[in-house]
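Researcher: Let's walk through a ligand-bound prediction step by step. First, I give you the protein sequence. Second, the SMILES string for fe (ii) ion. Third, you return the three-dimensional complex as structure tokens. Ready?
Model: Ready.
Researcher: Here are steps one and two:
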Amino acid sequence: MLTKFKSRIKSRPSMAGSTGEGFPEFLAEPRESFPHGVLVTNPQQSSLAQLTAKCMEYVEENLTHHPAILFRNLPAKTAEDFSIIAREIPWKALTYEGGNSLRQKIDENIGTYTANNDPDEISIDPHNEMSYNNVYPSKVSYVKIQSSFKLKPLTNVSPFHMSIAGNYEIVRREGIQENQYPSHTFYGDGSDIEPAVIQHLLATAWSCAVGFKWRRGDLLVLDNLAVQHGRLGFEGDRKLLVYMTT
Ligand SMILES: [Fe+2]
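Model: Step three, the predicted complex:
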């Protein structure tokens, strides 16, 4: 069901650690059941809300064994469609308060956001959503929709308020000091983590990762404690929305 594709990631521009030691040559293709693909058949015979409710029943039964489930072929084309989906997701919504990525609220009442507003070419390291925060989501749902919805202009966003791990090279290039980052990670005793260790973590995370190509109408539900997610920098007009829940 998932398109196989092979993407070279070694020495990829705007990808932290890609020129360093141990970094894998390619991003691996999807493995059997990772992500676990579910094709929605005859989507025109039910409403989007009914289809989503069925998908969520499936998630409740299977997420323990399949912590990344990709539903394909949902009739979701707009941000409003994602609000309909989010309403059927049975867990409590979580805001992005305390989050450190550029992300824009889409539906204030429901709690949907753009997945990430970083420049398209930036790759984002595999991570657990908001793992640096005291409050973080247990489950994260992403949907790929049509690109032609209007975003309000961003306000009050510092150009450096971005996902630092994913933008390490830019941060270094721009000469931003560590104490200017919105967040930072140390060893337990407050000492710095050595660059070689960070390189090892990045290389290991990408070595374990698999990639797939999004299609419009894809809904990806992740157990945020069991799996990580990231992205490759891209070209084109991809639009992903996110809904985070307890
Ligand atoms: Fe994320």
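Researcher: And what stands out?
Model: The first helix runs from residue 48 to 62. The CA atoms of residues 92 and 245 lie 5 Å apart.
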